[in-house]
Amino acid sequence: MIEDLEMVGRLGLAACGGILLGFDRELRGMSAGIRTHGLVALSSAAITISALMLHESFRATSNGDAIDPLRVIQGLAQAIGFIAAGAIVFTRGHVHNLTSAANIWLAASLGIIVGAGQYLLFLATISIGFTLITVVRLAERLLPGSIKHRQKKNSRSDQEPPQS
């Protein structure tokens, strides 16, 4: 059985991981920021912990073969997929919020991972995920052929005063 302190630690770690992922989105003014990512990770951890605790208690009181906590993770995956898909917008031939949707998905994954007590997997995932949403985003702007490089170049030329 999961001890109370362990349970609270898992929930806190999941929320912190979600907050860290949401930090980049928040700084960029995206609608899914710190609170959204923290809540997604926290709720995913809570549901995962609950499923594991129910599995333990049912297994202790009955045969327990029909109890499968992986079904909870499957349900979470479907729900988060639905929420993430709703964040994606297609307007005027351009797709927006794909990274936000992927980031929300990652926050849910972190919650599931921590809820299951897989701390090394959490550390590896949060490290790689945070690097992808911060360092790689900055590196994209340096790639000469990338859209982000052209956007950066255009935004700088818009701010420069006209030459006479």
From TrEMBL:
<dbReference type="GO" id="GO:0005886">
    <property type="term" value="C:plasma membrane"/>
</dbReference>
<feature type="transmembrane region" description="Helical">
    <location>
        <begin position="72"/>
        <end position="90"/>
    </location>
</feature>
<dbReference type="Pfam" id="PF02308">
    <property type="entry name" value="MgtC"/>
</dbReference>
<keyword id="KW-0472">Membrane</keyword>
<keyword id="KW-0812">Transmembrane</keyword>
<dbReference type="InterPro" id="IPR003416">
    <property type="entry name" value="MgtC/SapB/SrpB/YhiD_fam"/>
</dbReference>
<keyword id="KW-0997">Cell inner membrane</keyword>
<keyword id="KW-1003">Cell membrane</keyword>
<protein>
    <recommendedName>
        <fullName>Protein MgtC</fullName>
    </recommendedName>
</protein>
<feature type="transmembrane region" description="Helical">
    <location>
        <begin position="32"/>
        <end position="52"/>
    </location>
</feature>
<dbReference type="InterPro" id="IPR049177">
    <property type="entry name" value="MgtC_SapB_SrpB_YhiD_N"/>
</dbReference>
<feature type="domain" description="MgtC/SapB/SrpB/YhiD N-terminal">
    <location>
        <begin position="11"/>
        <end position="138"/>
    </location>
</feature>
<comment type="similarity">
    <text>Belongs to the MgtC/SapB family.</text>
</comment>
<keyword id="KW-1133">Transmembrane helix</keyword>
